[in-house]
Each structure stands twice: as structure tokens, then as C-alpha cells.
Amino acid sequence: MSFEVGTIAIGSDHRAREIVDALAAHLELQGWVVHKRYGGNADSVDYPCIADEVAKEITSGNAVCGVLICGSGIGMSMAANKTDGIRAALVHEPVAAEMSRKHNDANVLCMAADGPLDSDYNTILDTWLTTDFEGGRHQRRVSLMR
């Protein structure tokens, strides 16, 4: 099932605050309640702390899903995946966003602030949020992830 409009947690390191603010505005126009996490006005933010905050919002039920952005997206995805129940997928384009939902039931979308240069964050996010998990043989595989 795709995500029903509700509360979404979005976080970033210091490199992606403007992207988070733009995504939040885009989501709020669609009716989402957005919880932003990006470390205030600090010049440098420890991304594992932000990833942990977003992951805890999801596992506690305070958010239905999450988005994390750092320079490459790699650190955020690695940090988020340390939390039981989180399936964070690093995605650079809409097809990967779709597949992360269809086959992997990703509940956290991770993206890179530093590229690819033609990243359309809104399209990637919209694709991800509206794609259904197929279940079936994929559910068996998702259940094997620990």
C-alpha cells in the first residue's frame, strides 16, 4: 500500500536544509504534516543523530514514513538502517524510488544533496510516496531483513 497522507519526518545535515524546507513546503500543499529535523542553525550537524531522530519518529508511530538527505545520501541511509524496523533506501531517480517501495517496502527515502545535478527531489518523493508495496514474494524477502 502507498503511504496515506499523514505525518512525515524529514531530516538533513547542514548541507540540505534548503532542500528540506522546499520538500516540506511541497508536502504541506498536499496535506502532509511535516516534522523537520536538521540541527537548528549549526554550521555542522552529525547526520547519525538526525537519522536516529527520524527513525524513532517512524518506529514510535509519530510519523508514517521519513526522508533523509545528506551530501551523498550514503551516511544517512547507513545510519537509519541501524534502527530495527527501518528500511531506508538511497535513491537518485524516480525508477529507483518506485522499486524501493514496490519490492522493498522502504519506509525511509534517502537522497543526496550533492547530486546527481539533475535531481528532481519533488518527483522522486512523489513517486516514492504514491507507489504501493507489491507484497507476495517480496514480503517474504522483506521479512528476512533484520
Assign the CATH superfamily. Answer: Sugar-phosphate isomerase, RpiB/LacA/LacB
SSE topology string: EHEHEHEHEHH
Helix fraction bin: 40-55%
Q: First CA to last CA: what distance?
A: 21 Å
Poorly predicted residue ranges: none
Structural class: alpha/beta
> Please, how many helices?
6
| DSSP summary, beta strand count | 5
Shape estimate: globular
The largest sheet has its strands arranged as: 2-1-3-5-4
Q: What can you see in these coordinates?
A:
It is a single chain. It is globular and about 45 Å long. Helix 2 crosses helix 3 (74-80) and helix 4 (94-102) packs parallel to helix 5. It contains six helices and five strands. Helix 1 links the parallel strand 1 and strand 2 (33-37). The model has no long low-confidence stretch (mean pLDDT 91). It has a single domain (7-144), classed as 3-Layer(aba) Sandwich (Ribose 5-phosphate Isomerase B, Chain: A), CATH 3.40.1400.10. It has helices at residues 17-29, 47-59, 74-80, 94-102, 121-130, 137-144; strands at residues 7-12, 33-37, 65-70, 88-90, 108-112. Helices cover 41% and strands 17% of the residues. The chain has 146 residues and is α/β, with parallel strands linked by helices. Strands 2-1-3-5-4 form a five-stranded parallel β-sheet, sandwiched between helices.
